[in-house]
TrEMBL record:
SUPFAM superfamilies: Ribosomal protein S2. It holds the Pfam family Ribosomal_S2. NCBIfam families: rpsB_bact. This is Small ribosomal subunit protein uS2. Belongs to the universal ribosomal protein uS2 family. Gene3D superfamilies: Glucose-6-phosphate isomerase like protein, domain 1, Helix hairpin bin.
Length: 233
């Protein structure tokens, strides 16, 4: 756990990333009050000292999980985070969901595994030329099916069991993922904006969940924490 403390984040970095901006004050969840510094122009402002404290705790948990070879699933389906979610996950060897959360990914993993297996079998058959005797239209249909399944399951294709931890970029948008993790007893790290319920996740990180710069900053830190846990630079 000591190694996780090497990751540090300054208040200036959080400010520069725009992590301090919450939602309009009229859209807030009162449960976020302990993390809010004040209000400006009708928008809630986070107390960045508390954001930093929660963020460092979350990163420490991620590093610990990675060090123990736990499977960490990264979930970032909103458009501002989708590409970066995929980039960070692939760079660190993490499974990910960057398009849409599929119900049952955790709670009905056995069925999900069958779909993943079918995708892998179709890709292998394509690579081995087993579809070459099909008509042009049939090959096209197979290719389209593979593309569609890749979008759905590509990020979790290497999962052989339910994940050990979830890192969720928007706990309101991906509440389905959070709910399934809770049912399965899987710990969740998640960004909680001022309109969220911080009780829904184990390690809420109170910060802006809309600004691309803030989300990319968070994802870079997640990637760094995973690499540190795995002993990589």
């Amino acid at each position: 756990m000591a190694s996780a403390k090497k990751i540090d984040v300054t208040l200036e970095e959080l400010m520069e990333a725009g992590a301090h901006f919450g939602h309009q004050s009229k859209r807030w969840n009162p449960l976020m009050k302990p993390y809010i510094y004040g209000e400006k122009d009708g928008v809630h402002i986070f107390d960045l000292a508390k954001t930093r404290e929660a963020l460092l705790e979350a990163l420490e948990e991620i590093t610990k999980a990675a060090k123990e070879s736990k499977v960490i699933l990264l979930v970032g389906t909103k458009k501002q985070a989708s590409d970066k979610t995929k980039e960070i996950a692939e760079a660190t060897g993490m499974p990910y969901v960057a398009e849409r959360w599929l119900g049952g990914t955790i709670t009905n993993f056995e069925q999900m595994a069958k779909s993943i297996k079918r995708l892998e079998e179709m890709k292998k058959k394509t690579a081995d030329g087993e579809y070459k005797d099909l008509t042009k239209m049939e090959r096209l249909m197979k290719a389209r099916e593979i593309t569609k399944m890749e979008r759905k399951f590509g990020g979790i294709a290497k999962l052989t069991k339910a994940p050990d931890m979830l890192v969720v970029i928007d706990i309101k948008k991906d509440k389905g993922a959070v709910r399934e993790a809770r049912v399965a007893g899987i710990p969740v790290v998640g960004i909680a904006d001022t309109n969220a319920d911080p009780r829904s996740v184990d390690f809420p990180v109170p910060m802006n969940d809309d600004a691309t710069k803030a989300l990319e900053f968070f994802l870079e830190l997640v990637g760094k924490a995973v690499k540190m846990g795995k002993g990589k630079k």
